[in-house]
């Protein structure tokens, strides 16, 4: 369960000052499948980075499963990221000198809950890559993959540990419609069958239709918050 | 005018071998606005890299304005890229320690046709950034910009010299629909008013509708080639 209260984020690097989030308050229930939409620059990635404990708000609170994230230490935040959240970044963020198979296994290496042996890591990684249609690409490095294939490696990496929550920042931006639908079916299945909370940013109405709820940001604020009765 | 004849591209790095283009033959007339579509991994970026003289085909010919590109020296290829083509890459490819304003000016620094003074470069760069809605972001570096803003800096950079041809690989993948339409209006205006040839890759039918012609790739081959009568 996510609760944010009057969340503000101001980027201030001396030269540049941007008020990217201006008082965002909302709840996301466990097991929700939420789409976040809004114009370019409206604060979506900023919001996702705070939800994912990758960045801190300037003011306001963020409660994750009842615990105040703003009070946590760096180690506690790292543990949340590694144990609870699967993250798909807007820019993929794959390791460049590393194969698809190794990139996908990274969350298993960081796992504190249990240790994964190398044979098991390989099997889980292959399954995850198969599920996103990349069976022929295990040993390719990112620069040997198309844009949409890199995006799918990032998705497979987010899914591999069956995390409690998936945060996906524009996961289908580089994919054709058929592959996008396959990815959304994966997210929807994990949500409905395993109760995984999914929050995804998208610019596409077709993708947003898979969600139970659509939150629209504009200029750092929540403009609309609509329940979708027929996802 | 672009003419390609039985273009093949095989990526072979020892470990990995992929036949990405399998005999692509087609003409693109001067002043055409062409959309290239197709599934993820079908060869679109590979084709665009060859058109843009950034990569060589494994076999087959590529004639640009009647000259055989496959026979050109590295210097001749660099000149074509700098003088004739504005390129929007799928991954933006911005310089990271460099402001939006400086990133956009790069093609002017490489220009051989004429020299641009620093004051003129600044003015042209500001105009280009204004045209894509980034007037408030001149001094931001890429990591201080949203995904869609980075994409728009890349677009502004491709437009700044009014090149003879624009090659744009998924230029609206990170943009909301309204901003996407604004960008497509820019491309369409440059095409219709200045006669600039535009070849763009897209996964979106709404974007493809702006083109005069849609070429669909599949498994490295041309599957469809349709004239659009109402762009
Ligand atoms: N440097 C490389 N080495 C090996 N294989 C490569 C390399 N670059 C691309 N490929 C492969 O060639 C095929 C075509 O890639 P390309 O990038 O042209 O696809 P695309 O149509 O642009 O896809 P997308 O829509 O996902 O961007 C893919 O299967 C990809 O894995
Ligand atoms: N590190 C930073 N420093 C300064 N400004 C920033 C920084 N990161 C983002 N911004 C600014 O904050 C605003 C919100 O950025 P954000 O990345 O959240 O937008 P977004 O909604 O994800 O956009 P897009 O749809 O284009 O990805 C933008 O105007 C951007 O220029
Ligand atoms: Mg973003
Ligand atoms: Mg591509």
Describe the structure.
Two copies of one chain form a homodimer. Chain A contains seven helices and ten strands. In chain A, a hairpin with a 2-residue loop joins β4 (59-64) and β5 (67-68). The two termini of chain A are 21 Å apart. By secondary structure, the first copy, chain A, is of the alpha/beta class. Chain A has a six-stranded mixed sheet with strand order 6-7-8-3-9-10, with helices on both faces. A four-stranded antiparallel sheet of chain A has the order 2-1-4-5, with helices on one face. The A-B interface holds A 11, 13, 15-16, 18, 37-41, 44-45, 90-91, 139-140, 144, 146-149, 152, 169-170, 173-180, 203 and B 11, 13, 15-16, 18, 37-41, 44-45, 90-91, 139-140, 144, 146-149, 152, 169-170, 173-180, 203. The complex binds adenosine-5'-triphosphate (2 copies) and magnesium ion (2 copies). One magnesium ion (MG) binds next to α1 of chain A.
As a whole number of angstroms, the C-alpha radius of gyration of chain A is 17 Å
Oligomerization category of the chains in this entry:
homodimer
| Total beta-strand segments of chain A | 10
Helix content of chain A: 25-40%
Bound molecules: adenosine-5'-triphosphate, magnesium ion
Shape field of chain A: globular
Q: Kindly, what is the distance between the CA atoms of the first and last residues of chain A, rounded to a whole number of angstroms?
A: 21 Å
Approximately what portion of the residues of chain A adopt beta-strand conformation? 25-35%
């Amino acid at each position: 369960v996510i609760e944010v209260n009057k969340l503000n984020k101001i980027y201030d690097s001396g030269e540049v000052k941007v008020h990217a989030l201006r008082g965002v308050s909302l709840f996301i229930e466990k097991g929700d499948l939420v789409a976040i939409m809004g114009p370019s620059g409206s604060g979506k990635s900023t919001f996702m980075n705070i939800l994912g404990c990758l960045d801190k708000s300037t003011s306001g609170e963020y409660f994750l499963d009842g615990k105040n994230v703003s009070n946590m230490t760096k180690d506690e935040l790292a543990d949340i990221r590694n144990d609870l959240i699967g993250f798909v970044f807007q820019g993929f963020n794959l390791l460049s000198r590393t194969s698809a198979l190794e990139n996908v296994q990274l969350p298993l290496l960081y796992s504190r809950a249990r240790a994964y042996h190398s044979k098991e890591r390989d099997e889980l990684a292959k399954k995850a890559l198969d599920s996103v249609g990349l069976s022929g690409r295990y040993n390719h490095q990112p620069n040997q993959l198309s844009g949409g294939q890199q995006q799918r490696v990032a998705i497979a990496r987010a899914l591999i540990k069956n995390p409690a929550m998936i945060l996906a920042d524009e996961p289908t931006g580089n994919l054709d419609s058929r592959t996008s639908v396959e990815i959304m079916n994966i997210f929807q299945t994990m949500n409905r069958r395993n109760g995984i909370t999914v929050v995804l940013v998208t610019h596409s109405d077709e993708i947003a239709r898979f969600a139970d709820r659509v939150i629209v940001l504009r200029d750092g604020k929540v403009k609309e918050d609509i329940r979708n009765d027929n996802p």
